[in-house]
Prior knowledge:
Strands 3, 4, 5, 6, 7, 8 and 9 form a seven-stranded mixed sheet that branches. A four-stranded antiparallel sheet has the order 2-10-1-11. The radius of gyration is 33 Å and the shape is elongated. It is α+β, with helices and mostly antiparallel strands. It has two domains: 3-54 and 290-434, no CATH class; 61-283, no CATH class. It has helices at residues 3-14, 18-56, 67-76, 91-94, 99-106, 169-174, 180-183, 195-198, 233-243, 249-252, 267-277, 284-327, 329-337, 342-380, 399-425, 429-434, and strands spanning 61-66, 111-116, 124-127, 138-140, 150-153, 164-168, 187-193, 208-219, 229-231, 258-262, 279-282. It contains 16 helices and eleven strands. Helix 2 (18-56) runs antiparallel to helix 12, helix 2 (18-56) crosses helix 14 (342-380) and helix 2 (18-56) packs antiparallel against helix 15.
Amino acid sequence: MKFTDILKSANVNLFRNKMRSFLTILAIFVGSFAIISVNAIHTGVNDFIDQQVESIGGDNYIEIAPTAAYDQLASMMGTGEITKYNANKSSSDATIISEEDLSKIRKIDGVISMNPYYQASVDYITTSHTDKKYNAVISLMPGGGVKADLSAGNQINSNSSDYEILISEDYAKKLGFDTPSDAVNQTATFGVKQSIKCYTVANPDDCIATLDAKIVGVQAPSILSIGGIRVNQAANDAIYNLASEGIAPDIKNRTPMATGEIDSTKLNEIRADLKKLGFTAITIDDEVGMIRTFFNVILIVFTIFGAIALIAAAIGIINTLLMSVQERTREIGLEKALGLSKGKIFLSFSIEAIMLGFWGSALGTAVAMILGFIANNIFHQSGGFLEKFPTFNLVKFTPESVAALILIVMFIAFIAGTMPARKAAKKDPIEALRYE
């Protein structure tokens, strides 16, 4: 008997009992569908994160904070170690970066620049194109090659003494601009509350100072910068100085974090030197890694459920083929009597198991791909949660992952079918022919 004849015979025999085979294929279908769907989501999410990281650059960007600050955070969460009290250094001082600290950090080989990060805040933003004022939250646009995805305009010049900002598309609309391009090179006005002055005036508006900044670009939505306003170093410092006017310098200049630019090829050495000084460094890759890890943990849980379904399916394959061997005992005896070898009988039942795995996994991946395509379209429609991310396909299938899953499931099916196949191959032809 040729291999093609064995293959045809295996497919015919597989569906002698259609209901039993259908239920076994259905179990394989469920497991395959779950695993390929989770794998597709994993691929889609990680590909989009990689796109975002590549687009913003920032290989040379670094954030630095005292290790003591991270230790205090760990203690608050109940995961840190209890340390001894030091009368010469309070807990608050241990979490602050001093000018002396910055001087030491700047001397580290590979550190190009390092500046204290002062968290500036504003009360509102407005432009001459609207009579309304809107609440605003600003953040410093770091240097070190970090870029924002832009709908229009240019990147912020971090080293410029001019006050430059990036606004989101949503802010552009609210501030009276019909298109993102219309907002470029326009002036925005920030309202900054001067805390000390507010204690001396009756009208809250009398302690609001204003600062004008140039809109140099409009940000496109991305997972790393969803909405908000980015400002350059000069604007950030100016806003911080306005807000803290009248505050004593030793209080005003306290900062728990510094940002700077480094030679990324010396990152490991820089980390080691910073650790000796009592500081911890974070890069763009570290921050994105946290997002990636969060998604991966969730997807691993779903993958486990899919694997459990496949294990159950493997048990179903064993049961299906054992019953098939039992029902076809006389047939097996006749085939042996006609000269069919043990190897070909074993191969015949093994192929039946493999075909169960093939049909279950093929149907599972096909349905998953169809539903994934539909889901991506729905998510990108108006009102969908991916409406603002046109390049983000939550579900993304690759030929390699699809082929790998089908082959793996077929291999699992082959292993599961080994016991029934061996049982069929070992049957004595005389005893088999006597079987009722």
